UniProtKB/TrEMBL annotation:
<dbReference type="InterPro" id="IPR001584">
    <property type="entry name" value="Integrase_cat-core"/>
</dbReference>
<protein>
    <recommendedName>
        <fullName>Integrase catalytic domain-containing protein</fullName>
    </recommendedName>
</protein>
<dbReference type="InterPro" id="IPR012337">
    <property type="entry name" value="RNaseH-like_sf"/>
</dbReference>
<dbReference type="InterPro" id="IPR039537">
    <property type="entry name" value="Retrotran_Ty1/copia-like"/>
</dbReference>
<dbReference type="Pfam" id="PF25597">
    <property type="entry name" value="SH3_retrovirus"/>
</dbReference>
<dbReference type="GO" id="GO:0003676">
    <property type="term" value="F:nucleic acid binding"/>
</dbReference>
<dbReference type="InterPro" id="IPR057670">
    <property type="entry name" value="SH3_retrovirus"/>
</dbReference>
<dbReference type="GO" id="GO:0015074">
    <property type="term" value="P:DNA integration"/>
</dbReference>
<feature type="domain" description="Integrase catalytic">
    <location>
        <begin position="1"/>
        <end position="107"/>
    </location>
</feature>
<dbReference type="InterPro" id="IPR036397">
    <property type="entry name" value="RNaseH_sf"/>
</dbReference>
Length: 253
């Protein structure tokens, strides 16, 4: 606060949670000359502003997560995105400004996207051939607090990553179609793949088993073999092709 806005904090009010009331924070506040004020235990009305603000944010985050049909493992990214959007969009009536506008002394740049919407991520990690696929399927998770990138989940790599080279599919038809798909993948937030594991062409064996409970709307990648193509099936082998000895053998049609 002092470095960004030249505003000195004199007093902080909070409940009695150990994240607010501990020896490390007491030493820090004493060093900075900040006094602490705590509410009575189990008395929410004494800390009503913070409780009301947190409840509004949690309700928005829960709605976003349910509409996107994502598992609860993404609650952290979900809450961060809800906080980010509300800070830049909710107007404080007393000042007729957003929290961001009051703190930064300027209007925010609005570039919001639909949480959980399908995205196409440019693959700049692997060494790809000229005719290999250049994008990976994924879905949008939010905004990075430390870089100008979007937080996305890469379905092929099964991990979260930050990238600015993202194409969003936010139209109603794409979102409704993706929400009705029965294909799905499993999410393992502790699992990461080595960089060279997906250099080969993707096939059905590279995908996780279906789990409709977790991802009911994300289609798995389907790899069609040449025998599935009706065009290739109409081709005949060189042995079966008619052989002509001269031009006279060719009968006009």
């Amino acid at each position: 606060m002092d470095n960004l806005n030249e505003v000195r904090v004199n007093k902080l009010r909070s409940d009695n949670g150990t994240e607010f009331r501990n020896h490390k924070l007491e030493e820090f506040y004493d060093e900075k000359g900040i006094s602490q004020n705590f509410s009575s235990p189990y008395t929410l009305v004494q800390n009503g502003m913070a409780k009301r603000r947190n409840k509004t944010m949690i309700k928005a985050a829960r709605t976003m997560l349910n509409i996107a049909k994502l598992p609860n493992q993404f609650w952290g990214e979900d809450v961060n995105t809800a906080c980010y959007t509300q800070t830049k969009s909710i107007i404080v009536k007393i000042h007729m400004k957003t929290s961001y506008g009051m703190f930064r002394k300027r209007s925010p740049n609005i570039y919001f996207h639909v949480f959980g919407c399908p995205v196409y991520i440019h693959n700049h990690i692997n060494h790809l051939g000229k005719f290999d696929e250049k994008v990976d399927d994924g879905f949008f998770l939010g905004y990075s607090p430390v870089a100008i990138v979007f937080r996305v989940f890469n379905i092929r790599r099964q991990e979260m990553e930050g990238s600015v080279h993202v194409t969003f599919s936010e139209d109603d038809e794409a979102i409704s179609q993706s929400s009705s798909e029965s294909y799905a993948i499993n999410f393992n937030e502790n699992k990461s793949f080595p960089d060279d594991e997906f250099l080969e062409t993707r096939s059905k064996s590279t995908h996780c088993p279906i789990n409709i409970e977790y991802f009911p709307y994300i289609p798995a990648y389907e790899h069609h073999t040449p025998t599935d193509s009706p065009i290739l099936q109409n081709f005949i082998s060189p042995e079966e092709a008619p052989k002509f000895t001269n031009v006279a053998d060719v009968k006009p049609t």
